[in-house]
Amino acid sequence: MKVWSVANQKGGVGKTTTVVTLAGLLAGAGHRVLVVDLDPHGSLTSYFRYDPDELEHSVFELFSEEVPDRNRLKSLLLSTSHERISLLPASTALATLERRAVGKEGMGLRVARALRRLDGEFDQVLIDSPPVLGVLMVNALAACERLLVPVQTEYLALKGLERMVRSIAMINRARKRRLEYSLVPTFYDRRTQASVNCLRELHRQYPEQMADVVVPVDTKFRNASVQGVVPSALDPSSRGVAAYAKLLRTLMAQQGRSEA
Ligand SMILES: Nc1ncnc2c1ncn2[C@@H]1O[C@H](COP(=O)(O)OP(=O)(O)OP(=O)(O)O)[C@@H](O)[C@H]1O
Ligand SMILES: [Mg+2]
Questions:
Q1: Least packed by Cβ within 10 Å: which of 25, 147, 221, 237?
Q2: In this structure, which ligand is nearest to the CA of 186?
Q3: What is residue 42's three-state secondary structure?
Q4: Cα 13 to ligand 1 centre (Å)
């Protein structure tokens, strides 16, 4: 079971879209996929037509006194519009977690421990995280083998990214293993100077971390979310889906190399 997290401290950069699109492509290729919603706003949960305000059971249970056992964890999973994608949903109770977690031991590893208990159930796990550095994002970063950081190709993106890169460095100091990350440029519009300049600057500042793909602005993403289906099910040949398919090929090749 492989775990990838998608995070950026900046909001609205395409995190949830990245999770949903990659999940759809992986599931389409026959993988059993789990998507985990660690955002108290529950966008990923809402995407698949569940209401985070109404859900009684959610990923919040991972942060109770004891990490739930395998059967309990399995009972928290919800089905989605795609038969091979399961959802560990968020509920709005998650919003209280930052306050509750203060000073409690081991809260940063709850998701990692829970996923280990689900070993064998899934081939690939994708974790969506909130745009805030707190206990939830720390869990997302601690649970994954690789981190994807979507970066909106616009004027203010680089400042936000610096903050995220500093957070990754801080977390790496606390981990035994270095967390590798890939920057995924999103909302790219080659007709605008801001997009072109931002992409050039990203390549200059982060040559090692840049994914060899650019996700274009594509209205199909919003259309898919309106219908609650993964973008590849709505239009597998759209430009946006094609970009994520290319990203996935690169990630799978890297995964293969790290296993070899
Ligand atoms: N490449 C794209 N082209 C056009 N629209 C996009 C693209 N990526 C995402 N969107 C749309 O932009 C909006 C924000 O995207 P998304 O929810 O994925 O961002 P996010 O980083 O998860 O936001 P938040 O920080 O609020 O969780 C959504 O309506 C989504 O459909
Ligand atoms: Mg989101």
A1: 237
A2: 1
A3: coil
A4: 6
Show the tokens assigned to 221: 């993403």
Q: How confident is the prediction for the chain on average, in pLDDT?
A: 95
Read off the amino acid at residue 36. Answer: V
User: Which CATH number fits the domain that encloses residue 108?
Assistant: 3.40.50.300
Q: How confident is the model at residue 142 (pLDDT cuts 50, 70, 90)?
A: very high
The tokens 């609205």 sit on which residue? 12
Displacement of CA 113 from its chain's centroid (Å):
18
Task: List, chain by chain if needed, residues with CB within 6 Å of any ligand 1 atom.
Answer: 11-17, 39, 43, 131, 186-187, 215, 217-218, 221-222, 225, 240
Digit-coded pLDDT (tens) for 47-57: 999 999 999 99
Cα(215) to centroid of ligand 2, in Å?
Answer: 16
pLDDT tens by residue, 2-56: 999 999 999 999 999 999 999 999 999 999 999 999 999 999 999 999 999 999 9
Give CA–CA dist 26/241, Å, rounded.
Answer: 12
Domain that holds residue 43: 2-259
Number of domains in the chain: 1
